[in-house]
C-alpha cells in the first residue's frame, strides 16, 4: 500500500469532517449524511483493489 493512498484518505476524511460540520450547523443534516456516505464510497473504491491484491497474495502464498 502506497503512502500516498493513506494521505489521500486522510485528506478526504478531514475535508468531509469540515464540510459535515458546516452543513450540520446550517441545518442541512440530510446533505451532511449524503456527503459522509459519498466520502465513504470514494474511500472504499480506493481501498478495494488493495484488499483484492492482499487476498491474491495470501492465496498464492498458501497455494489454495
What can you see in these coordinates?
This protein has 64 residues and is mainly alpha-helical. The chain has 2 helices and no strands. The chain has helices at residues 3-25, 29-62. Helix 1 (3-25) packs antiparallel against helix 2. The longest helix has 34 residues, at 29-62. It is elongated, with a radius of gyration of 16 Å. The protein starts with a helix and ends with a helix. The model has no long low-confidence stretch (mean pLDDT 93).
Brief overview:
With about 60 residues, the chain is mostly helical. The protein has helices at about 5-25, 30-60. Helix 1 packs antiparallel against helix 2.
Spans of at least 5 consecutive residues with low confidence: none
Mean pLDDT: 93
Count of discrete alpha- or pi-helical segments spanning 4 or more residues: 2
Structural class: mainly alpha
Got a strand count? Answer: 0
Query: Main β-sheet, in a few words?
Result: none
- Strand residue content: under 5%
Layout of SSEs?
Blueprint: H1 3-25, H2 29-62
Helix pairs in contact: 1-2
Structure characteristics:
single chain, 64 residues, mainly alpha, 2 helices, 89% helix, 0% strand, elongated
Amino acid at each position: 500500500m502506497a503512502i500516498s493512498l493513506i494521505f489521500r484518505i486522510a485528506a478526504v476524511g478531514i475535508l468531509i469532517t469540515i464540510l459535515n460540520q458546516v452543513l450540520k450547523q446550517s441545518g442541512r443534516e440530510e446533505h451532511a449524511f449524503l456527503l459522509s456516505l459519498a466520502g465513504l464510497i470514494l474511500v472504499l473504491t480506493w481501498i478495494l483493489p488493495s484488499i483484492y491484491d492482499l487476498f491474491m497474495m495470501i492465496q498464492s502464498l498458501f497455494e489454495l
